[in-house]
Amino acid sequence: MPVMIIAQLRFRDIERYRKYQSQFSNVFGKFNGKLLVADEKVQAIEGSDCPDKIVVLEFPDSESAEQFHNSLKYREISEDRKAGAHALVVQVKSFHNGGTFP
Hints:
Elements: E1 3-11, H1 14-28, E2 34-39, E3 53-59, H2 62-70, H3 72-84, E4 85-93
Antiparallel strand pairs: 1-3, 1-4, 2-3
Helix pairs in contact: 1-3
């Protein structure tokens, strides 16, 4: 079953975040995932706690997502992400490939 990793980011050191961002594609490209969303112009349509950026990654299954997130290279570059932005990162199951609404 496909899964998504969704990150809500609030920047605190943009230079460190940009360093992470410049290395992300090279690391992510080695895994079987798709970058679906990476938006720094997030617009709140309800509520007031709007993050600075939303990222949505799709993987074919939870094992693939975990392999990416736990890989040595990603952990190395994620130090700059962690220094550069506060993040809420979650993994959720996708049902867009024929699942039903829960």
